[in-house]
TrEMBL record:
Record bears the keyword DNA damage: no
PANTHER family: ANTHRANILATE PHOSPHORIBOSYLTRANSFERASE, SLL1634 PROTEIN
Domain named Glycosyl transferase family 3 N-terminal: residues: 7-70
Pfam families: Glycos_trans_3N (PF02885), Glycos_transf_3 (PF00591)
Regions that span the bilayer: none
One cellular component term from this protein's GO annotations in UniProt: cytosol
Cross-referenced NCBIfam families: PRK07394.1
Keywords for this protein: Amino-acid biosynthesis, Aromatic amino acid biosynthesis, Glycosyltransferase, Transferase
Organism: Gloeomargarita lithophora Alchichica-D10
GO biological process: L-tryptophan biosynthetic process
Protein name: Anthranilate phosphoribosyltransferase
Alphabetical list of Gene3D superfamilies matching this protein: Nucleoside phosphorylase/phosphoribosyltransferase catalytic domain, Transferase, Pyrimidine Nucleoside Phosphorylase, Chain C
Amino acid sequence: MSQEFREFVRKVGSGTHTHQDLTRSEMHRAMTLMLTQQATPAQVGAFLIAHRIKRPTGAELAGMLDAYAEWGPKLPEIAAAQPVVVLTQPYDGRDRTMPLSPLTALVLASAGFPVLQHGGERMPTKEGLPLVAVWQALGVDWRRYSLTQVHGIMATIGLGFVYLPHHFPQAEALVPYRREIGKRPPIATLELLWVPYQGDYHLMSGFVHPPTEQMMRTALTLRGVAEFTTVKGLEGSCDLPQDRTAIIGCGGRERLLLKPQEYGLGGANIPLADGLTQMTAVLQGECVPLRTALLWNAGFYLWRLGAVENLAQGIHQTATLLDQQRVAQYLQKLVALANGT
């Protein structure tokens, strides 16, 4: 048993009226003790469920990110004209709506914006479809590559994926606790903010509940992250919805309320099963339902990243990239490069 970690459990697990928030440095130390398995399984489980009940603070999330920055993998900086775009999604995946970010990543990369994603396999508590499975369906199995190979692919073509089971086994070892405690621990929020990259980047992070967004903003500000975007997205991802107004935070400066109906792109969100069968068609420029979702998402991100002057132009540019087969050609190059690595 770790006496040091026992004190952290006591602080966060003392009840509604007597619990104490950890400082950023204390949370950094607590996360380190979990990653290095110096805390016992009983202590880790107790801490994670108590911390969920208490709710993390922005300073605690910053401390957790400090530990991930210290112990996790870091892709070296690549030579690129634009900061790397980091598109995140809850690690426990999707079970209702189509994950759009891999397709969005292809559009952005074909327009000259390098993109990085990260994640693992099906994960408690949701056990939804993970991003790595969507990429596999597109012809790229990111499970195969070492971190050095991922860096090589990213440096060559501008797209990469950090795969938790191989590239960060210390964090992967904490995954079974999610099933045992039956709830998402605060680590799930941490994963939306983690950036395993050493160069300049622009983080795109989704959220569900407004208090979570504020915690995220506080954590990123404490860590000196200037360029980030928060999206009240589909199932906690950074995918913009089509059935409601998209609520978007642009760092600490501005909030956007975007209505897809004003651009002719409103409607029902694409169901998971339907979206998976339409990926090839949408990349070939066909007018399947998935196309409107991709136009809405990639068009927004092109605008947010400064590639165009307004959202309508971003939507138009996305349509042009699809119709001219530039996104499909980019994917072919990525698949050829990845298979030759």
